[in-house]
Amino acid sequence: MNKFTPLSEEILSSISVMELKLLHLDPSVGAGNFAEKALAVSLNPDQPCLLQTEAESLAKGVQVEQLSLAELVDLSHRWASWYWKKGIRAHDVVAVYANDGLTQIVHFCALTLIGAVAAVTNGAMPGDVASAHFRHLRVRGIVTSAKQKAALDPALRNEVGFCIEIAKTAIPRKPEEFTRHRHDATDPVMITHSSGTTGRPKPVTLAHGQWFHGIRDNLARQGERTGERRLLSLPASHNSSIAFIIHAVLDGSQVLVAHTQSGDFAAEAIERFQPSTVAAFPITYVTLALRYAGSADFSSVRYWVNSGDAAHEKHIRRLVAHGTTPHDGGLVVGSTFVDGLGSSEMGHISFPVQHTKESSIYGRCIGRPHHWVDAQVFLEDGHRAKTNEVGRLGIKSPSITPGYWNDSDLTARSRIDGYFLTGDLVYRDEGGRFFHVDRTSDVIRTGEGPCYSLLSEELLMKLDEIVDDCILSSIDGKDGMSLPVAVVWSERAATMLADPLLETFNETLKDQNMPQLYAVAVVESAAIPRGITGKVLKRTLKENIAEAIKDQASASWLLDFEKIDND
């Protein structure tokens, strides 16, 4: 690591509490103009607000490790001038396909200045997938890092107005003339994308007012907290990352933008940067919980904010036992883990469930939705589910996406009775609390009834030696039914035996009246295929396991396998 804010330096809030309250009440503030609105009321516009640990080239001759709010606005104006000269205008789509860093927020700000739409794309997306994605979006241009540019289909570079490498592109030394766009709440400002774990990435539209609704709600609920340190350990292209930065800029905080989602890096960053809030994916929290909780200094952390897949109870409990929380004018040991259910399409966390060391309700409980969210449970036939009956989650809220870019069919199919179908299976109990049991694509249809993988995984995670686990289906069942297989990985996997695990797992599942497993596979952690956001690629894993079972001798990563007699 190269640079962190010195630990002796106080964070001076760049905004007063009163101005913060006025900002969140101002209806003209939105995702497309946040930086300029923040600059207009900033008390310390030259104080660094976005930090990195590695230098990044944001244009030819522009190497930075940090940006102040004034520098962010200036640089975005200079790039907006460049885009304007290239003929980019309101509602044109430009792809941002680059390494993680400050590039994503700079170009988001630049493009929204002129009303264009930033298609911010994960730099880890394979070049062929990205090329198809950009063709679907009908992008007018592409800005990239060297690695990503080389990965693109060469023919695509000739189909668009420009495809440039950011580090080699000269921009005006000072902002030049362009027409600044005045946003309406419905104006699209960004196209994000789903993880692509179940097919091609879905292009999710985010609008100026719609996307900002959740951020505005966060600003309203945070009270008088301003000027904090925060660690962002999510991919910089993720819409949660952009939203996290927007929030921090508006409330005068500093953000350390990590260049990796490594839990090892995050642990060191927490100790040296001392953030009050950490935002990461579950894959980062697993490492923090199992390798560092109790040994590393997490005393500065007040909030752990999870995004992407849901986190496991075992990992949450280890993290919330550390950190500190203000209480009666002092600090008490213990932090809060925010594990709310959200997605790119929801625009914001819809269920703001929070866990502390006193929490007792887990079991995939996602709590109750925000007061501005209408959540319902639908059966396959479109009727409403009864209490404790599993069905499809439907959401109505001001933060829901307007739809999928250039895909009206998918947009229409994602709705029922005016509700957006999230792709999640849930049930609601007598107290109005929701429980997340699975993704619709992951349910395993067995002869004993549906096997909900999330519920089964959470139950099996009770074993101390399991780091993580994954339930996937097999096609080997009778009468078209599938057979569940638990794929287990652990830091101690080399000493684990599948036979006793299978017996223990099935006894546990039987006690809960849940479908039992057909088999257990113990594998090396590195053998788990993951997508660009760290999610487990269940289809790929299923195929890999099936092939390995046929020829275990050639699959060194399959450490042990045991199945029941299914005859």
UniProtKB/TrEMBL annotation:
EC top class named in words: ligase
Organism: Pseudovibrio axinellae
Statement: the UniProt record of this protein carries the keyword Transport: no
Catalytic activity, EC: 6.2.1.3
Classification of source organism: Bacteria, Pseudomonadati, Pseudomonadota, Alphaproteobacteria, Hyphomicrobiales
Gene3D superfamilies listed in its UniProt record: N-terminal domain of ligase-like
Primary gene name: lcfB_2
Name this polypeptide is given: Long-chain-fatty-acid--CoA ligase
Pfam families on file: AMP-binding (PF00501)
An example molecular function term from Gene Ontology annotations: long-chain fatty acid-CoA ligase activity
Alphabetized PANTHER family for the sequence: LONG-CHAIN-FATTY-ACID--COA LIGASE
UniProt entry keywords in alphabetical sequence: Ligase
InterPro entries the record matches: AMP-binding_CS (IPR020845), AMP-dep_synth/lig_dom (IPR000873), ANL_N_sf (IPR042099)
CDD domains in alphabetical order: AFD_class_I
SUPFAM superfamilies: Acetyl-CoA synthetase-like
Keyword Ligase assigned: yes
